[in-house]
Amino acid sequence: MKPAVGIIGVGQMGGAIARGLLKQQPSPVKKLYLSDKNQECLKPFLEQAEPVTSELLVKEADVVIVAVKPHLVEEVIKEIAPELTGKILVSVAAGVSLKKIAGWGVPAECEVVRVMPNTPALIGQGFIAITPSKVDELLANIFNSLGEVVFLEEKYFDHITALSGSGPAYIYLVAEALIDGAVRLGLPRDVARKAVVQTLIGAGTMLKETQEHPGILRDAVVTPGGTTAAGLYQLEKQGIRGMFADCLEKAYERAKNLT
Ligand SMILES: NC(=O)C1=CN([C@@H]2O[C@H](COP(=O)(O)OP(=O)(O)OC[C@H]3O[C@@H](n4cnc5c(N)ncnc54)[C@H](OP(=O)(O)O)[C@@H]3O)[C@@H](O)[C@H]2O)C=CC1
Ligand SMILES: O=C(O)[C@@H]1CCC=N1
């Protein structure tokens, strides 16, 4: 039996999950309930999902996904906790541990999991980490429709938040930098954008399909004494590996100290 799913907080991430679920045919959910303080967030979903109060959502949904900002998770969970017996509670919040959630009045008969998705879930191309529990299969059925699912111990959740949760933003920055760099050289912006987007998709798909080490795929592009070697030299000289390592470390530390 398909579960009824409710999402509390239909902003950037909750909205992406809702859209991803609604796009999937056949639908992985029996019914989708949505609740948000901001009515504007609910408008795009009025035809396909049921906007309800959080109180009603918790009564009707088998799986309750909390997708509000990390500092608001405590308030939301404390409010809905008494109604969670027999339900599955999913928190997508960065930096909010299962231990903390357990202290907010959630009944013992409620399975609590953390999920770290990313916004490409909106188009079924997300990366979704889920803490292992008794309801792995049920959650895999729901989240597989949003992208690639991995079950991951909670001790790695700050790592995965820094990497794939935040990851799309790093890639968009790289894309923007490449487009602007090409425009600086004189390439028309629309051509630069198309070239960058397809290069990212092509390189990403090669990584996925060939399963090769990135270095091997890179070497195939680098003609000795050629253009790529000249470009890569500049990136290495300016410390691109260290920059990404620092970027991940800062994001990881921030996840640890968010709430
Ligand atoms: N954005 C991302 O890429 C990712 C986000 N996350 C996690 O997802 C969570 C949400 O982030 P994000 O979507 O960016 O945030 P948003 O602010 O875009 O979305 C949160 C939504 O929840 C609403 N809200 C606030 N309080 C309540 C409440 N009591 N009841 C119902 N709705 C409420 C907000 O309304 P209002 O604006 O009026 O306050 C807002 O519309 C965070 O915990 C974040 O860590 C995880 C992975 C990726
Ligand atoms: O920036 C954030 O804190 C959230 C968590 C991962 C992506 N966005």
From TrEMBL:
<feature type="binding site">
    <location>
        <begin position="67"/>
        <end position="70"/>
    </location>
    <ligand>
        <name>NADP(+)</name>
    </ligand>
</feature>
<keyword id="KW-0641">Proline biosynthesis</keyword>
<keyword id="KW-0560">Oxidoreductase</keyword>
<comment type="similarity">
    <text>Belongs to the pyrroline-5-carboxylate reductase family.</text>
</comment>
<feature type="binding site">
    <location>
        <begin position="8"/>
        <end position="13"/>
    </location>
    <ligand>
        <name>NADP(+)</name>
    </ligand>
</feature>
<dbReference type="GO" id="GO:0055129">
    <property type="term" value="P:L-proline biosynthetic process"/>
</dbReference>
<keyword id="KW-0028">Amino-acid biosynthesis</keyword>
<keyword id="KW-0521">NADP</keyword>
<comment type="function">
    <text>Catalyzes the reduction of 1-pyrroline-5-carboxylate (PCA) to L-proline.</text>
</comment>
<feature type="domain" description="Pyrroline-5-carboxylate reductase dimerisation">
    <location>
        <begin position="154"/>
        <end position="258"/>
    </location>
</feature>
<dbReference type="InterPro" id="IPR000304">
    <property type="entry name" value="Pyrroline-COOH_reductase"/>
</dbReference>
<comment type="pathway">
    <text>Amino-acid biosynthesis; L-proline biosynthesis; L-proline from L-glutamate 5-semialdehyde: step 1/1.</text>
</comment>
<dbReference type="InterPro" id="IPR036291">
    <property type="entry name" value="NAD(P)-bd_dom_sf"/>
</dbReference>
<dbReference type="Pfam" id="PF14748">
    <property type="entry name" value="P5CR_dimer"/>
</dbReference>
<dbReference type="GO" id="GO:0005737">
    <property type="term" value="C:cytoplasm"/>
</dbReference>
<keyword id="KW-0963">Cytoplasm</keyword>
<protein>
    <recommendedName>
        <fullName>Pyrroline-5-carboxylate reductase</fullName>
        <ecNumber>1.5.1.2</ecNumber>
    </recommendedName>
</protein>
<dbReference type="InterPro" id="IPR028939">
    <property type="entry name" value="P5C_Rdtase_cat_N"/>
</dbReference>
<dbReference type="InterPro" id="IPR029036">
    <property type="entry name" value="P5CR_dimer"/>
</dbReference>
<feature type="domain" description="Pyrroline-5-carboxylate reductase catalytic N-terminal">
    <location>
        <begin position="5"/>
        <end position="95"/>
    </location>
</feature>
<dbReference type="Pfam" id="PF03807">
    <property type="entry name" value="F420_oxidored"/>
</dbReference>
<dbReference type="InterPro" id="IPR008927">
    <property type="entry name" value="6-PGluconate_DH-like_C_sf"/>
</dbReference>
<dbReference type="GO" id="GO:0004735">
    <property type="term" value="F:pyrroline-5-carboxylate reductase activity"/>
</dbReference>
